[in-house]
Amino acid sequence: MSLKDRITSVEKLRSWTDQIPLHYQYTAGVAGEKFLRGLREGRILASECTNCGKKYIPPKVYCVECYREIKRFRQVGPGGVVAALAESRVGFEGNRLARPRTFAFVVFKGVTGGLIHFATGAGLEIGSKVVPKFRAPAKRQGTILDIEGFVKA
Questions:
Q1: Residue 69 has pLDDT above 90, yes or no
Q2: pTM for the full model?
């Protein structure tokens, strides 16, 4: 068998056309589920370590400081403070938006972390006090989009 024939036969072994059906299904986890249920009720929940008192958003099931399991959840806010702002002129699918969307990183007093979400309304800047604008209770589904966005307080 010539070198050319051997290379061709190896190439045939290395490539084929087929499909591998993959289906991923992720759960929100214990802390995430509690957080999403809170959103459905119109509340923002942080997890709180009973050992060191540290609070986290998004909620965690283990404390980053003392490595203890977290089982306590506390409502925070409703207001927060804008720690960062960003404007996007491109949608999630890569299409150009007719109007830019503003996103804010919102932090809450005494809480580690925060939420990145839509920011709406005029006059928002870093340091602005904001509150979440929730969807009507009948339209909430237990997702982050139960908050329509953050608006100036």
A1: yes
A2: 0.79
